[in-house]
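Case 419 in the screening queue. Each case pairs one protein sequence with one candidate compound; here the compound is zinc ion. For every case the pipeline is the same: read the inputs, emit a complex structure as tokens, and attach any notable structural observations.

Predict complex for case 419.
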Amino acid sequence: MKAIRWHPPSFDIRVEEIPAPKIEHPDDAIVKVSLAALCGSDLHIYRGHGGPGITAVHTCGHEFIGHVVELGSNYGVDSAKGRPELYATLKVGDKVVSPFTVNCGECGVCRLGYTCRCPSGLLFGSPALEGGQAQYVRVPKAGATLFNLNDPHSWSSSLPAELKATALAGIADSSLLMLADILPTGVFAALQALNHPKVLPALTGRPFPTSFFPGEASAAMVAEDRTLTFAIIGLGPVGLCAAVSLLDMLASKELPFQIIAIDPVEDRRAKAMAIYNKIDTAGKGKGTFETCDIEQAKKRCVGCSAVLEVVGNTSAISLAYDLVRNFGAITSVGVHGQPPVPFTGSQLYAKNVSFDFGRCPARAMFPLAFDLLVKRQDVFGEVGGPDSLVDRIVSPDEAPEMYRAFEKNQVGKVVFKMN
Ligand SMILES: [Zn+2]
Ligand SMILES: [Zn+2]
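Case 419 output:
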């Protein structure tokens, strides 16, 4: 089969013919990949910043959609009862999308919803597990990992069952592919920021610590105290998903807010604003949305209630620290590589700042992301426009050039047509 492969030490992507994967464990499924996406976090390994363990040649990619072509012997048998649902119901031919990490669905970590940190978890597109930028991919623990798009009853949703099925039929695969990582991760960043305990005084109108308890809003708090200010640092595909998600949450809760979306690249700022302009009045809620570069941000938005950091490098996280208010929260979903975090304990103490770091539990976030995908097809449905999230769909043969261009911010979200 054809596969997009990373070679050490860095900046070396090759399109190669390799053997197709086989079932290695009874819980495995083999998926024939129709579309696979290139992601900002693929760039960490591409640049050679994957860490000391990342030295082996491997197939890239952790975002893919396709069809099941083979199942291990644990599917459709009596012993599947009591296990995650898809062990009993998944069939060859079903269309599936996979979260970017494998999880078992049967341990305490998974039961709490922290699926990205399952002890049996593996990241696609790493030396530990071959990636999805290939014509076929092996999915371990597939009965707990995959989503069966042929059976929308198999995941929860706030949408009525009929609407769910109808909506699903109308959504392009290139749009459904966003459910593998970038949309759940964007929703995760927004959800963590808006639900952070540090945001509660503005949200409830009750000062700390009465904000933790039921009661009336304080008459002493003025409108300015209750206006939530969010900065989003990084307007790549995940940053755009975070912005759309945050807007949706704020609009549906009818909260007053300001969102300041920050990126040094003018094209990315223009896309963020084009996407915002595409959203209808109801979706914009009771707040404002503006974009700015880093210097403007430093002048404009010191004192944010919360900062969403979606880049994953030391300058982005330093900027987040500068922008957040005392008693503010930073939620960081960027992949931070080797350099240490650029703060001292006394800096953190001096601002009473809270940090949420880490990987999105994409499987747990999938239902919320799916509902947003359905609701915001105006943003997520199209390909190639100035206001669409997916920039282009290309042949895998273009992978070396697309990696190069994506790394240089010359293209947006790229999708490879693998079959
Ligand atoms: Zn990704
Ligand atoms: Zn688990």
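Case 419 observations:
- Residues 103-104, 106-107, 109-110, 118, 120 surround zinc ion (ligand 2) (CB under 6 Å).
- The chain is about 30% helix and 20% strand.
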